[in-house]
Amino acid sequence: MSESCVKFLLTKIHTRIQRKDTLLRSAIPAITKLQAVLYFLATGCSLRTLTHIFRLGKSTISEFIIEVCEAIYESLREFIKIPTTTDWKIIENGFQKQWNFPGCCGAIDGKHVVIKAPPESGSLYYNYKETNSVVLMAVVDYKYCFSYIDVGCNGRVSDGGVFRNCSLYQELENGVLPEGHVLVGDNAFPLKEYLLKPFPGNRLTLQQKIFNYRLSRARRTVENAFGILAARFRVFEKPIPYSPEKVVKIVKTCCALHNWLRQTKLQNRQYEYTVDTENFEEGAIVPGNWRNEPQSLGMQPLPISLSNRSSQRSTDRREAYANYFVGSGSVPWQTRIIH
C-alpha cells in the first residue's frame, strides 16, 4: 500500500476513530491506530509485537483493532455490495469476453477461516479438518473482486449445510441473479439451475471434459481471489485469536480492502500480486506470483459435497452448456488443453 493510499484511507475513517484529548492523557492519533491495524492484518503478528512496535498497551491495541476494522469496512462498503441489474450485466459481459463463458455472473467458493476455539463452545466450531472455524462464502467477478460475501456460519455445519446456511443461498433461491444466468463452482456445491459444477468421475466423454475445462477457466477467478487475499493479509496464516464475532469483522475488512486495492489507482503497483494465466500453445497454466507465498494454514477449503441429487432442469442446463462448448461456443485451443 502506497503512502497516498494510507492517507486516503485515513481521511475516510479519521472522524470515526479519533478520540478527544483529556486532562489526564492525550488521545492516540488516528494515523497510529490505522498503521497498527494495517500492520496486524498484513503480517498477522501478535499483540505483543504490536506493543513493542507502536509503544502502546496490549489491551489498548486489542480494543481498537476491532473499532478500526469496523470503520474501514463501513467506509469501503461501496466496493463490496450486491451488484445491481446493470452491474450483473457488466460482470456477465466480462466473463464472456475474458473467460468465454456466456451467462456467467460470478464464481462461487468458500473457505474455513480458522479461529481459536471460544471458551465453552464445545464442538460448535469444530470442522472436518479437526480445527475450529467460521466459514467465508464468496462470489467473485471476472476482475477477481468479491461481489458478495457471507461470513459467520460455524465450521461444524455439514458439507451440504454450509452453502444452505449462508444468506447467499436464500438470495440465489429468491432470484438475485438475472433470469437465465448462472454461477460456477466446484464439487463442494450442489448442482442447481443457477449454479453449475463439473461433471464428476474419471470416465468422462470428450464433451464432458471440455465442459469441465471451460468451467475451471471461469472458476479460477475465485481461486485466485482467495489466494491473493491470503497472501496479502497474513492474518490468515494461522488461527485468528479473537471471538467469532470479532473474526467476522476482521474478515469483512480484509475483503473490502482487497476490492479497494484491486480497483484503486492509489496502490503501489510494484507489489501487486499477479494471477494465473494460460499458455495456449503449450497447453499449460502459468501460476500467479501469489502462489509463491507460504501456504496459509488459516484458510481451509470446503469439503466435497456428497449430494448427488439435482433437478432435471439443473442437469439439462449443464448439458446445454456442454453442447454449446463443443458447438458454436468452442474455442480453438480447448481440445489441445484437455489432452
Structure write-up:
- Residues 108-259 form the DDE Tnp4 domain.
- This is DDE Tnp4 domain-containing protein.
- Its cofactor is a divalent metal cation.
- It comes from Euphydryas editha.
- One of its GO terms (cellular component) is nucleus.
- There is one protein chain.
- The protein has 339 residues and is α/β, with parallel strands linked by helices.
- 44% of the residues lie in helices and 13% in strands.
- The chain has eleven helices and eight strands.
- The chain has helices at 3-17, 30-43, 47-54, 58-75, 85-99, 159-164, 167-173, 206-232, 244-263, 312-326, 334-338; strands spanning 104-115, 132-140, 146-154, 182-184, 195-196, 277-279, 284-286, 299-301.
- The strands form two sheets. Strands 1, 2, 3, 4, 5 and 8 form a six-stranded mixed beta sheet that branches. Strands 6-7 form a two-stranded antiparallel sheet.
- Strand 6 (277-279) and strand 7 form a beta hairpin.
- Helix 1 (3-17) packs across helix 2 and helix 1 (3-17) crosses helix 4.
- The longest helix has 27 residues, at 206-232.
